[in-house]
Amino acid sequence: PDSVRTRTLAEETARVFRARVVNPRWIAAMQRHGYKGAFELAATVDYLFGFDATAGVVHDWMYDRLAHAYVLDGPTQEFLRRSNPWALRGIIERLHEAAERGLWAEPDADTLAAMREVYLEVEGELVAEVMELYRAVPAIRIDLQVGEALIKGDPLRLRQVIHNLVKNALEAVEEKPKPHIRVATRRLDDLDRPLLELSVED
Q1: CB atoms within 10 A of CB 186
Q2: Rounded to whole angstroms, how far apart are CA atoms 187 and 182?
Q3: Rounded CA gap, 133 and 27, in Å?
Q4: Distance CA 124, CA 118 (A)
Q5: For 73-116, what is each residue's pLDDT tens digit?
Q6: Helix, strand, or coil here: 187?
Q7: What DSSP letter does each residue of 65-111 carry, written as one string?
């Protein structure tokens, strides 16, 4: 067609960034999906980081907008804290990594300091939540048989999955007179490659 328009990769990245990534309407739409929406926000930051590491098309102003739109914006930060604090923590870690690797070449010092403050607060909240889980059900039994197994994966998401499994188990047994949860691991060496099985039983 006569209306075809070509854009450079940098131009297209900037267009999508403005139209979707930091578009208040898109962010609001993600918030309507709760936990899954928060995960999508964190995944978007991951994608941009990876894209920048390979193609070098994410500019400093984009990282700054991400920091303010996802981490430092009051309502969005509150949504992430409430729905998926692990996602908020992951976003901050990824933005700090971009600064440390020079992808975010000249970050504002006050912005980095503000993100660090949020990170410490979220870290404290997550620790408190995990401790509350153990206090709520003192009969949790841990049976780990990891040995020398090496788990390859995103540590943030692995911790998040385990935490959510235990939390779901707690909710399932909260009405029982004698709640009991067993968290166990075992190696599966009889397959083509060694695997680690994690089970949460209630």
Answers
A1: 16
A2: 17
A3: 31
A4: 10
A5: 999 999 999 999 889 999 999 999 999 999 999 999 999 999 99
A6: strand
A7: HHIIIIIISHHHHHHHHHH-HHHHHHHHHHHHHHHHTTSS-S--HHH
